[in-house]
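User: tokens in, sequence out, please.
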């Protein structure tokens, strides 16, 4: 049988997995979420790249840091092997650190989409156990599990989660405001050191008890998420969150 005839999944190296997960074309549903950017634009808070820069930096230090922490913790758990109950605890602890119901739903929607893609791309017993315990896992948890079960390090999972926290809204800004893609990419590139710092801090606590993990947050982002969901139900919006 030729390689093209085989239906068996091909093992993917951990570095490649991080690239696949961070790719905007990955079918995890991230393209329909703006991370609060659309609501901020609608309220006149963001007009151009000068406004976008602090928004992305703030989102990285809040949502990005939180998702990085839990992605790193999930990668650490997937690599060492844990009981099914651990996944429920990790997932519920992320829930507890996400006060906005709209943000919780957006995270679970992306988590479920990512889980479906992962089940088709590289199924594993670890993934099956996670989904048996939490059928709609939070997005950073499933990101970490995929990374850890493929041999990736907690810092790899954290980097992916942190990057997605800013790359999604950055892409949304181009579509919503017609900004120069090169200028927007430059803003994201200038966050490289901050991204590394966030990933490093997340990896440092990856082995901690889930109940002791950090809980960074930003009330303004929570309020934007709630407003976006309400308006999305009332009128046509480009993004679900």
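Assistant: Sequence out:
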């Amino acid at each position: 049988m030729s390689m093209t005839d085989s239906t068996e999944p091909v093992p993917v190296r951990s570095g490649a997995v991080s690239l696949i997960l961070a790719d905007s074309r990955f079918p995890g549903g991230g393209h329909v979420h703006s991370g609060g950017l659309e609501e901020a634009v609608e309220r006149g808070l963001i007009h151009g790249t000068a406004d976008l820069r602090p928004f992305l930096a703030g989102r990285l230090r809040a949502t990005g840091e939180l998702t990085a922490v839990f992605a790193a913790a999930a990668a650490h758990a997937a690599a060492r092997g844990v009981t099914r109950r651990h996944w429920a605890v990790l997932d519920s602890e992320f829930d507890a650190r996400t006060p906005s119901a709209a943000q919780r739903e957006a995270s679970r929607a992306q988590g479920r989409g990512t889980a479906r893609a992962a089940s088709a791309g590289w199924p594993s017993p670890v993934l099956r156990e996670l989904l048996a315990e939490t059928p709609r896992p939070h997005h950073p948890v499933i990101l970490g599990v995929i990374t850890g079960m493929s041999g990736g390090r907690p810092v790899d999972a954290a980097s992916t989660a942190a990057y997605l926290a800013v790359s999604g809204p950055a892409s949304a800004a181009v579509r919503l405001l017609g900004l120069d893609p090169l200028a927007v990419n430059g803003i994201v590139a200038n966050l490289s050191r901050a991204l590394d710092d966030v990933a490093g801090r997340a990896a440092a606590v990856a082995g901690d008890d889930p109940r002791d993990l950090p809980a960074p947050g930003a009330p303004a982002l929570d309020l934007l998420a709630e407003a976006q969901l309400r308006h999305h139900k009332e009128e046509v919006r480009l993004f679900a969150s």
